[in-house]
Amino acid sequence: EAGVTQFPSHSVIEKGQTVTLRCDPISGHDNLYWYRRVMGKEIKFLLHFVKESKQDESGMPNNRFLAERTGGTYSTLKVQPAELEDSGVYFCASSHLDRGYEQYFGPGTRLTVT
Amino acid sequence: RKEVEQDPGPFNVPEGATVAFNCTYSNSASQSFFWYRQDCRKEPKLLMSVYSSGNEDGRFTAQLNRASQYISLLIRDSKLSDSATYLCVVNIWSTDKLIFGTGTRLQVFP
Question: What is the pLDDT of residue B93?
């Protein structure tokens, strides 16, 4: 079974630019989550999709971040415009609908904003 | 105060040693508890769930004390391959959100 995949693995952009991160969950997983780890801090929850619906977006830092999951398959996380403090590793995770506590993480996208 | 607190380490131990990690959590609505393992520049991977009765998986033993809001992980007979960061993770009741500690780094040397 293929795991969670994320693209790109690394991204370096300048402040003010836009970046879009993509996550493909494990096939059959209706739950999809985004987390991020900024330098020196713990991994923090951003939001949770159930199929195409946002179930919980309490962790989204501000309106520069937009997550979508059209069709309930892959998801994108867009940062526009990017700021220096957005640098970090963005992880995507997925789980079965009734096993939300058993989340499988992707390898992450390392974002550097200069 | 962080919701999940861990000693960041690093813990440097020789092969064969026994090492214990501790973690405390502040939210009494925490429902589920886990230890994840994260290798350098890799994703976190579930190591084991933690139950009040305690649970063991080979050389790893996890314990939960709900009254003290305290979680532990014991690794016996450490191997070089155990070198990693161990993340204490809790899940709050009625949400899927995982709350992570900053992790404890373990380095096992020959």
Answer: 80
